[in-house]
Amino acid sequence: MTPSELFISNYEASTGGSGVFTLSQWSVVRLYGEDRTIFLHNMCTNEIKALPSGKCCEAFFTDVKGKILAHAIVLIFDEYLELLTVPGQAEGIIAHLERYIIREDVKLEDQSDKICWSLVFGKQSEKINNSSQLAFPTNMLETPSYLVPASAEEIAKGSGDSCVLIEESIWNTLRIEASYPFFGVDFDSANLPQEIARDELAIHFNKGCYLGQETVARIDALGHVNRQLCRLKFASGDIPELGTKLMVDDQENGIVTSCCWSPGYEGPLALAMMRRGANSVGCELNSVHGKATII
Predict the structure, then answer these.
(1) Distance between CA atoms of 244 and 253, rounded to whole angstroms?
(2) Same domain (yes/no): 230, 290
């Protein structure tokens, strides 16, 4: 089932030009203090110390066994750092990090109710970026994108209405097209970082020691994980239901965690956690919604 003409029109206008979406109720944790950068560097999977002000990166936060506690965007400011992630995560992130503050000069604050972030994207989004005092380039989508600390309405108004306000369904489609996962939806605290297939964007394998690093390094040396989040395209026109089982020779090998109809890929797309042996690009799967292929 294809989406409405309005959906396709807004999708094409925003990706071909520029679009904006407010990351409503997303969690924002701010870190102050002289030791904030080295402390956070030692608590996550990515390289933080080398990032200059005005840049950002993805990172996983894990427990001592390497299991994921959070997946966030780390944003670098002159006077502080911010962690941006899906709703409902700030309290848990703060509690986890505070356990490891001993003598470090680090202060954590939940800013979720005070700060609004939006994602500006599209082929013409650089024009919006150039008009904003604060815009952080990201790799969240397949199209150029920037995180801006303002509401979508403010950004659209400031652009002279050249930036299209999009609905959540388009945002969901864009992030599935880009394989951008949500903690609590596509994966959770039972997963390991390499299972989420964000290695190049969220894990720095030569940064040195950090909490959970031993497990991440061991998996890297092993060369594989037993399951991994994958992007699939379905052959039929029907959008699969969440939880749809994906089969190989009548054996369940994974389930759908997110799904949409993609104008960019001209058909239904999904994210799914797939077992080893059935998670490589080109692998064909069966389901009650027809055949699917990992892309």
Answers:
(1) 11
(2) yes
